[in-house]
Amino acid sequence: MSTNKKNDFYKILLGQLLSQDEGIDAEILSNSALNAIKFASLNRNFPIISNILLKASSDFQRNNASLNQIIFGNHFKNPLGLAAGFDKNGVGAALWSYFGFGFAELGTVTWHAQEGNPKPRLFRIAKEKAALNRMGFNNEGAEKFFKTIKKQKIASPGNRPCVLGINLGKSKITTLDEAHKDYALSLKLLAPLSDYAVINVSSPNTPGLRSLQETKQIKKLIRTLKDLSNCPPLLVKISPDLDNDAIDEIATVSLEEGIDGIIAINTSLNRFNLKNLKIKTGNTLEQENGGLSGLPLQERGIEVITRLRSCTNNDLPLIGVGGISSAKSAWERIVAGASLIQIYTGWIFEGPNLVPDILDGLTLQMEKHGFKNIKEAVGSKEPWK
Predict the structure, then answer these.
(1) Chain centroid to CA 115
(2) Residue pair 343/351 in contact by the 8 Å Cβ criterion
(3) Given this model, what pLDDT does residue 1 score?
(4) Distance of alpha carbon 174 from alpha carbon 172, whole angstroms
(5) Is residue 382 situated within a structural domain?
(6) Exposed, middle or buried, 248 (CB in 10 Å: 0-12/13-18/19+)?
(7) Does 230 map to a domain?
(8) Residue 350: its pLDDT value, please?
(9) Relative to the CA of 110, which of 6, 206, 351, 382 has its CA 20 to 30 Å away?
(10) Based on the number of CB atoms within 10 Å of its own CB, is 141 exposed (0-12), middle (13-18) or buried (19 or more)?
(11) Does residue 384 belong to any structural domain of this protein?
(12) Res 297: pLDDT
């Protein structure tokens, strides 16, 4: 079936309401979609829901061996993943493969449950295909997260149709000096559920968090987590707002400390050329707190991946995220050096067909360039044809 044909179920679930500035609050709409996903995940063996999911898999999945890779010990059926931030509590862990994703990153989850920052805290900027969020790691906490995943009765790591990563953050009530212990509590509990784990030290919405990217702090954090007996492959997610020297230092530390990969980039405090744009609050972007995501970050995302690729001597897997909203932008991130890519804001604006559109586009580009596997494209700098 052509992916251009509208699927009513997903049109309701992820439709045009999610890509309008005005109207119902963006967070309420996102939560409504997640509630539907949660229900479907828990009841996925019921005949009606099972039939819907089978149709979804027919529409959105692409089973092409040329897209397969093994990275940090995990088999990725394709390089496209759902970025952290959408499924914060892991309620759809059993379903993301049906949407066509090769992997999904759940969270951000913190050891302590927390409400996050005051509402409203999520704003669509539809014309620019961007979003502003200041959520503040709102989530139900690691212990509830563990129960939520177990309740869905998904297969164990290494035996899943979709690789699952877990993105870890610092609880707001935990001091920066105790941050390493906070992350360790979460990872020790959740490691058995994780195909890989991510140290999120780059969100702009938790006071002081980004200071954990500094060399002394990040080394302490990495060593604490790597010392856990059940530590899964461990990645670091970095900010787009780091200067080049800081990016180089993160790369060096990651190699020295045995980090398995780097995710670049998180949301940005930079407003790029949109600082005077007014959003739903009536204020300009420059006047509002929070991290910007979506299309405005596309160029910066390529810059950071390119630099990381160079200063790690191509020895460290990179995951590119930020501003990917088409097959072309996905290809550009891969040829810049990303082995895997993630989408979130682009998925909201473009809809669920973005996944097969990207995968089909990547396959076509490989054919045009004579590549037999997607890994040959990584860092190749080959142009979009």
Answers:
(1) 21
(2) no
(3) 40
(4) 5
(5) no
(6) middle
(7) yes
(8) 85
(9) 351
(10) middle
(11) no
(12) 98
**AA letter at 199:** I
| pLDDT digits 0-9 by tens, 54-102 | 999 999 999 999 999 999 999 999 999 999 999 999 999 999 999 999 9
**pLDDT per position as a tens digit, 236-277:** 999 999 999 999 999 999 999 999 999 999 999 999 999 999
CA 68 to chain CA centroid, nearest Å: 19
Give me the residue label for tokens 């949301």. 267
Quick one: three-class SS letters along 4-63?
A: CCCCHHHHHHHCHHHHCCCCCCHHHHHHHHHHHHHHHHHCCCCHHHHHHHHHHHHHHCCC
In the chain, the amino acid numbered 293 is S
Q: How long is the chain?
A: 385
Tokens standing for 187?
Answer: 């990872």
195: in domain: yes
- CATH number of the domain residue 145 falls in: 3.20.20.70
What domain count does the chain have? 1
Catalytic residues: 203
